[in-house]
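User: Can you predict the 3D structure for this chain?
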Amino acid sequence: MAVEAILKARNESGRFNSLAELCEQVDGRTLSRKVLEALIKCGACDSLGQTRATLFAQIERAMARAASVIGDRQRGQSSLFGALEEKASQVSDFSITLPEWPQQNFWPMRKICSGFM
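Assistant: Here is the predicted structure, written as structure tokens:
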């Protein structure tokens, strides 16, 4: 169900450029922390251009921001400078880059996420 929601959002909005954008575009009822963790661990979010460790550390803030943005969108609220504020906050909130997890951890994570272990 989550994969279908992600594919639908990607077909409607195009490629995701950040974890925050993915969380904002995908239906929040299907995209949970557990789903995001599995996607990051198995490498499905590697195209976002950040290390898996960095993406993993961003999950809580990305989901919280997405809930706020989606709530505002549903209520029809926006500010005159909302677009500018949103761009600035994305840069400042997620600018820290963590070192990548050790390569030897990648295969075991993929096996666990795909159900082989």
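The mean pLDDT is 81. Residues 52-75 form the longest helix (24 residues).
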